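Researcher: Next sequence.
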Amino acid sequence: MIRQATPDDTDAILDVWLLASLQAHDFVPAAFWWQQQEQMRARYLPAAEVWVCEREGEIQGFIALVDDYLAALFVRPDCQQNGIGKALLAMAKRLRQRLSLKVFSENDIAVHFYRQHGFAITDEGTDPATGQPELCMGYQGEGKQKIFKLSGA
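Model: Next structure:
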């Protein structure tokens, strides 16, 4: 079941985030992720709209949205490959007409996942906190048409 997160979910969300971050980002020193936990708890999660995937009373994944920015999508490593990330991303797409995100370039699995679900690379940069190269990606929902100004009409 996907539902909006409550303050009581914070510890479980942080556990998912830390476990998944350590696994997916092994090119970043583990100490970095451990040091970021309090910032996540005090600053990032309260600023976001957070949705969790709960199965059998256990939070297995979550998304965090800040306006049209997909700030986080994480699934516990032992729960991956079960459609949780896909379901969470589908929820984000239902909530927003367009989405943008940043992902580490070396996180091939995540880059492939987002491309598979309609995201395109829009820019490249460097994450200021880690110094790692990152990709900016964007999604525009189907049926959403761009409006072009006709010149000379």
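Model: The chain is about 35% helix and 30% strand. Residues 144-153 have pLDDT under 50 and may be disordered.
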